[in-house]
Amino acid sequence: MTGFGVFGAVYAVAAAGCVVSLLFGVVTQALALPAHSNALVLAVYALGVTLPLVGVTLLAGVGIDSWRSLGTHSRRVQQVAAVVMIVAGGGQIYLAVFELGVL
Asked: How many angstroms separate the CA atoms of 93 and 87, rounded?
């Protein structure tokens, strides 16, 4: 569990460079509004940032649990995934050669 905490902290520091300009813009615009609107804008921004992250985290947890519950079927799932990737690659080659005339 400590590893996830460290990962989260490092991710937060790395992502700060991407979102700090947007955060400053939202805060600056919110400060120009009346106090109750200011709080509402900041709350909506906070929800807009946190809900997708929480959703992805929960889905990742469900995915890990589902993968573990597959148990003996994991080899078959890997084989099916390999076939899907091969078919997708073949489809891309077909499109590139015959539809787009790359070669």
From this structure: 10
Q: How many domains is the chain built from? A: 1
- Domain that includes residue 50, residue range: 2-71
Asked if the structure places residue 16 within a domain, the reply is: yes
Look at residue 52 and tell me if it is in a domain: yes
Write down the pTM of the prediction.
0.51
Nearest to 26 by CA among 40, 12, 9: 40
Report residue 27 as tokens: 């805060």
Residue 68 backbone class (left: φ over 0; alpha: ψ -120 to 50; beta: rest) = alpha
Q: How many Cβ atoms from other residues are within 10 Å of residue 78's Cβ?
A: 11
pLDDT tens by residue, the chain, 103 residues: 677 788 888 888 888 888 888 889 999 999 999 989 999 999 999 999 899 988 888 888 787 777 777 777 778 888 999 999 999 999 999 999 998 888 7
